[in-house]
Specification:
heterodimer; A: alpha/beta; nine-stranded mixed sheet; 16 helices; 17 strands; elongated; B: alpha+beta; Peroxidase, domain 1; 2 domains; four-stranded mixed sheet; 9 helices; 62% helix; binds adenosine-5'-triphosphate; binds magnesium ion
Chain lengths: 507, 189
C-alpha cells in the first residue's frame, strides 16, 4: 500500500486502539480443561454455558460447547488442537457462533467461521448472523413461483428448480455432481442471485480448481466459497454448511435471492459422526448418532421462498450426496431424499456410456419446481418424460428381439436423438430460449433423420442458429417479450430448425 | 475427562446421595474432612491405599472396619469398605475433592480462590470477601496464595467466574486486543 502516515496520526491511531483494548478488570465465566484429544476438550466449570455457545481460550482458540453434562462440558475445538493443553481455561463469550455476512463476503473464500482464506485481507463486515438461524415458519413462506435456471437442459426440462426449492444432487463418486452445481452458479450471471458454494471435506486442489474456474468466468463477482476441506478439524466441517446458510439468509431476508450448494452432505454427516463418537454419544445405524436426521433437516428447512409480506426473498439449496454403487437406500441418502423437494440422480453407468450429464430421468424428480418453470419450456418439455420412458423400455426390449417394425424403429430414433439433445459439455450453461429451441426440435422429431454420428454437430449448429440466423433472432426476440409456445413462436422456431438441421439430414 | 476422575465423581455422587438419604450429610462431611487430614498426615495410609490392602475382598473390608469402624459414621465406613473390596482406595483424594465440591454446591457455599501478586494484607482479602458476599451470599470457602507472575494486582475465582484485576492479565488483554484484526465499524467509533 502506498499510504503516507504522519507520526502524530500513527500515535493517535495507536492511542485509540489501546483505549479500546485496555480493560483494567476483566470478569469472565471460565472452565478448566480436564483432558483434550481428537479435537474435543472436556472442561470442568462453565456451568452456565449454552448449547452451541462460542468459547475461547486465553490465546484465542475458539471452541463450540456441545455436550452439556452434569459435571463437565464437551467442547469441539475449532482451531489448531495442539494449542489447547490440559489446565488451560476456556471462557464464555455469551454468543452462539456467529459469522460475518453481507456484501463484504461476495467474491471471498472463507472458512467455517468466516475468516478469510484467500489472502485478500480481513472480511470487512459489520453484520454478524448466528450460524444456526431459524427456519421461516409456514405463514412466512409461499410456494415456489420463480424459476432458478440451471442452464443445464436436462434439469431445466425434466426436474426444473424454483427459487426457494431444495433439490438434491445424488450419485456415485465422479459422476459429475459438482459440475452440475458449478454450472448452475455460472448460469446465475446477471440474475442477481447470490451464490454460496460450501465445500465440506474435499481436497484443497479440487476447490482451488473450482475457484479458478469461477474467477476466470467472472462468477466470483456474485459468489462466496465457504471451505472446510478434508484436513480441517471435524467441527469446522460440521459447521461449514450452517455458515454458508447464514450468509445466504442475509440475502433471503432482505428480499434478495440466494443459492447455496452443500458439497457434500455425506462428508458432512461423516464429520458429525466422528465428533459424536468422540463426544461419546451413543451410535446408531451405520454408527451415526441418533440426531443425524435433525442435522440435515434443520439445515435444509432454512431454504425457503418468503411471502410477499416478508419481502419475497428466496434461498435455494442444492445439497449434494455421494452414494456407494448407486445405493440410494443407505442411511444418509434416504434421510436427505425425504427432506428435499426432489432429487437429480446421476448414474455411473450413463456417465461411462458418454451420456453426460448422467442424469437418470426415470428416478429424478422435482416435486415443486414445475410451477415455476418458464411457460414455453414447460410446453416443450411436456412430452419428454413419456418419450424417454418409452425409449428406455424399447431399448431393453430390443436386446431380446431383432426384427422390429418401422414404427418401433422410428420411436427408437426419436429416443436416441432426445438422449443426445440432453447431452451437454461441462461448464457451458445454455440460455432458456436456446434450450427450448433444441428441446422442441427433439420432441417434434426434427432430428430423427440426422445420423447418430452427426447429431452432436447438428445440436451445436442449432444452438448457434438461434443467435446468428435471421429467423433465429426473430425467435429470440419474440421469446424475450413473451415466452409462451403459441402458433407464432412455433412458426418462428420451426423455420430456424429447418434452416439449421437440413444440412445434417442424410439423403 | 480421564477415567479416574470420572470414577471418582461417580463414587462421590453415590456417597453424597446415600448420606442425604440417611440424613447424615453433616457427619459424612466431617468424616471426609478427617479422612483428607489423615491422607495428608499419614504416609503409611497413602502407601497402603495406593498399593491396595492385602487379602481377599472380605478381608480388606474387615481391615477397613478395624481402621475406621470406631471413628466414622456407618455410611462412611460402608463406603470405604466398598472401595477396599474393589481396590479403589487409591482414589480417596480424588473422591474427597469431588465430594467437597458437591457439598459446596449443595450448601450454596462459594469456592473462592484468590491470587495476589505480593503478600496481601487482611484488608485486601476482606475487600474481596465483601465483594463475593454481596454477589453470592456470605457462605464461602476462601483459599489465598501469592503468585508473582501476576506482576501487580489480584486475580480471583468465585466458582466458575474469574475476576482478573492483575497487571499481567491487563497486558495480555491489551496484546490480544491490538493483534485482533480491526472491524471497520468499531475502529471508526
Ligand atoms: N457433462 C459432462 N461432460 C463431460 N465431462 C463431464 C461432464 N460433467 C462432468 N464431467 C467430468 O467428469 C469428471 C468428474 O466430475 P465432477 O467432479 O463434477 O464429479 P463429482 O461427482 O463431483 O466427483 P467427486 O465424487 O470427486 O465429487 C470431471 O473431470 C468433469 O470434467
Ligand atoms: Mg464433487
Amino acid at each position: 500500500m502506498n499510504i503516507q502516515l504522519k507520526p502524530d496520526e500513527i500515535s493517535a491511531l495507536l492511542r485509540r486502539q489501546m483505549q479500546q483494548a485496555d480493560r483494567p478488570v476483566d470478569v469472565a465465566e471460565v472452565g478448566t480443561v480436564l483432558s483434550v484429544g481428537d479435537g474435543i476438550a472436556r472442561v470442568d466449570g462453565l456451568s452456565t454455558v449454552m448449547y452451541n455457545e462460542l468459547v475461547e481460550t486465553e490465546s484465542g482458540v475458539a471452541g463450540l460447547a456441545l455436550n452439556l453434562e452434569e459435571d463437565s462440558v464437551g467442547i469441539a475445538i475449532l482451531d489448531d488442537v495442539t494449542l489447547v493443553r490440559e489446565g488451560d481455561l476456556f471462557r464464555r463469550t455469551g454468543r452462539v457462533i456467529s459469522v460475518p455476512v453481507g456484501k463484504a463476503l461476495t467474491g471471498r473464500v472463507v472458512d467455517a467461521l468466516g475468516r478469510p482464506l484467500d489472502g485478500k485481507g480481513p472480511v470487512l463486515s459489520d453484520e454478524l448472523l448466528p450460524v444456526e438461524g431459524f427456519a421461516p415458519s409456514i405463514i412466512e413462506r409461499k410456494n415456489v413461483c420463480e424459476p432458478l435456471q440451471t442452464g443445464i437442459l436436462a434439469i431445466d426440462a425434466l426436474t426444473p428448480i424454483g427459487r426457494g426449492q431444495r433439490e438434491l444432487i445424488i450419485g456415485d463418486r465422479k459422476t459429475g455432481k459438482t459440475t452440475l452445481a458449478v454450472d448452475t452458479i455460472l448460469n446465475q450471471a446477471g440474475t442477481g442471485v447470490q451464490c454460496f458454494y460450501v465445500a465440506v471435506g474435499q481436497k484443497l486442489s479440487t476447490v482451488s480448481a473450482l475457484h479458478k474456474l469461477l474467477s476466470e468466468r467472472g462468477a466470483m463477482a456474485y459468489t462466496t466459497i465457504v471451505l472446510a476441506n478434508a484436513s480441517e478439524p471435524a467441527p469446522l466441517q460440521y459447521l461449514a454448511p450452517y455458515t454458508g446458510c447464514a450468509m445466504a439468509e442475509y440475502w433471503r431476508d432482505r428480499g434478495g435471492h440466494a443459492l447455496v450448494i452443500y458439497d457434500d452432505l455425506t462428508k458432512h454427516a461423516q464429520a458429525y459422526r466422528q465428533m459424536s463418537l468422540l463426544l461419546r454419544r451413543p451410535p446408531g445405524r451405520e454408527a451415526f448418532p441418533g440426531d443425524i436426521f435433525y442435522l440435515h433437516s434443520r439445515l435444509l428447512e432454512r431454504a425457503a421462498k418468503l411471502s410477499d409480506e416478508k419481502g419475497g426473498g428466496s434461498l435455494t439449496a442444492l445439497p449434494i450426496v455421494e452414494t456407494q454403487a448407486n445405493d440410494i437406500s443407505a442411511y444418509i441418502p434416504t434421510n436427505v431424499i425425504s427432506i428435499t423437494d426432489g432429487q437429480i440422480f446421476l448414474e455411473a453407468g450413463l456417465f461411462h456410456e458418454g451420456q453426460r450429464p448422467a442424469i437418470n430421468p426415470g428416478v429424478s424428480v422435482s416435486r415443486v419446481g414445475g410451477d415455476a418453470q418458464v411457460k414455453a419450456m414447460k410446453q416443450a418439455a411436456g412430452p419428454l418424460r413419456v418419450l424417454l420412458a418409452q425409449y428406455r423400455e424399447l431399448e431393453a426390449f430390443m436386446r431380446f428381439s431383432s426384427d422390429l417394425d418401422a414404427g418401433t424403429l422410428e420411436q427408437l430414433a426419436v429416443g436416441r436423438s432426445l438422449m443426445y439433445v440432453l447431452r451437454q459439455a461441462p461448464n457451458q450453461p445454455v440460455a432458456v430460449h436456446k434450450q427450448v429451441a433444441v428441446l422442441f426440435a427433439g420432441t417434434e422429431k426434427a432430428l430423427v433423420k440426422v445420423p447418430d454420428s452427426r447429431l452432436r454437430e447438428a445440436v451445436k449448429d442449432l444452438y448457434d442458429a438461434v443467435d446468428t440466423y435471421e429467423n433465429g433472432k426473430a425467435y429470440a426476440a419474440r421469446f424475450a417479450s413473451s415466452p409462451v409456445m403459441d402458433d407464432e413462436l412455433k412458426g418462428l422456431l420451426t423455420r430456424v430448425i429447418e434452416d439449421s438441421v437440413r444440412k445434417y439430414r442424410k439423403g | 475427562m480421564n477415567g479416574e476422575s470420572a470414577y471418582a465423581r461417580a463414587y462421590a455422587r453415590a456417597l453424597y446421595g446415600s448420606a442425604q438419604a440417611r440424613h447424615e450429610v453433616d457427619g459424612v462431611t466431617q468424616d471426609i474432612l478427617a479422612l483428607e487430614r489423615q491422607w495428608v498426615g499419614s504416609p503409611e495410609l497413602r502407601h497402603f491405599c495406593k498399593r491396595g490392602l492385602p487379602g481377599s475382598p472380605a478381608g480388606r473390608a474387615r481391615s477397613v472396619e478395624k481402621l475406621w469402624g470406631g471413628t466414622f459414621t456407618r455410611t462412611m465406613v460402608f463406603f470405604l469398605s466398598v472401595l477396599a473390596q474393589r481396590d479403589h482406595l487409591g482414589m480417596v483424594p480424588l473422591i474427597t475433592g469431588q465430594y467437597q465440591k458437591m457439598d459446596d454446591r449443595a450448601q450454596g457455599r462459594s469456592d473462592v480462590r484468590i491470587s495476589f501478586a505480593c503478600e496481601p494484607g487482611e484488608e485486601e482479602i476482606g475487600q474481596i470477601r465483601k465483594l463475593v458476599a454481596d454477589a453470592y451470599g456470605p457462605v464461602m470457602k476462601v483459599a489465598v496464595r501469592v503468585d508473582p507472575a501476576l506482576i501487580a494486582g489480584t486475580r480471583f475465582f468465585v466458582n466458575d467466574r474469574r475476576v482478573d484485576a492483575s497487571l499481567a492479565g491487563r497486558l495480555a488483554r491489551l496484546r490480544a486486543g491490538l493483534t485482533k484484526p480491526q472491524q471497520p465499524g468499531k475502529a471508526a467509533s
